[in-house]
Amino acid sequence: MRFKDENDGTGFAKSRRSVPLWMIVGAVICVLAVVATVVFMRGGFSAKSNESVVKRVGKHIMLPNETPEVTTVDNAAAMTGQPFFANVKNGDKILIFPKAMLIIVYRPSEDILVNGGPIVDDSSTGSSSIEAAGE
């Protein structure tokens, strides 16, 4: 008994896959490239970027001998209710030195320090606050 091969007239048997494997692999590679680009642009691979920010800030002010936590302001409008952050803009970097109890706001686009001050630990209320420089 012979079984008839299904083919499309080209002499090749039809594949059961409706999408070729190379198209799936290509799509996955494209998606990974886009994700990597977005993460990189947002500072996701930021160890070297943070080092660069700390180095630039260190040219303006003497910094404590510790590695700061560095974050980027994404929503400045949400921070304007706090006097310390009144002049921040999106893209500004906030450096927090927890051991030294110091916080600095740096604007890389203009290479300026926007604000800086101590983090005051109010043990009586169990909270911390930030004082602006000169207050």
Shape: elongated
Strand content: 15-25%
Uncertain residue segments:
none
Q: How many DSSP E strands?
A: 5
Mean pLDDT: 78
Which strand order do you get reading across the main beta sheet? Answer: 1-2-3-4-5
Discrete helix count:
2
In whole angstroms, how far apart are the ends? 96 Å
**Assembly type:** single chain
Largest sheet: 5 strands, antiparallel
Question: Share of helix among residues?
Answer: 10-25%
Q: What's the SSE pattern?
A: HHEEEEE
Which class best fits the helix and strand makeup? alpha+beta
Radius of gyration: 27 Å
Describe this structure in words.
This protein is of the alpha+beta class and 135 residues long. It has a domain at 46-130. It contains 2 helices and 5 strands; from the N terminus they run ααβββββ. A 5-stranded antiparallel sheet has the order 1-2-3-4-5, with helices on one face.
Brief synopsis:
With 135 residues, this protein is an alpha+beta fold. Helices cover 24% and strands 22% of the residues. It has a five-stranded antiparallel beta sheet with strand order 1-2-3-4-5, covered by helices on one side.
Tag the structure with descriptive keywords.
135 residues; alpha+beta; five-stranded antiparallel β-sheet; 2 helices; 22% strand; elongated
Sequence-ordered SSE layout with sheet pairings:
Elements (H helix, E strand, L loop, with lengths): L20 H21 L5 H12 L10 E4 L20 E5 L4 E6 L4 E11 L4 E4 L5
Antiparallel strand pairs: 1-2, 2-3, 3-4, 4-5
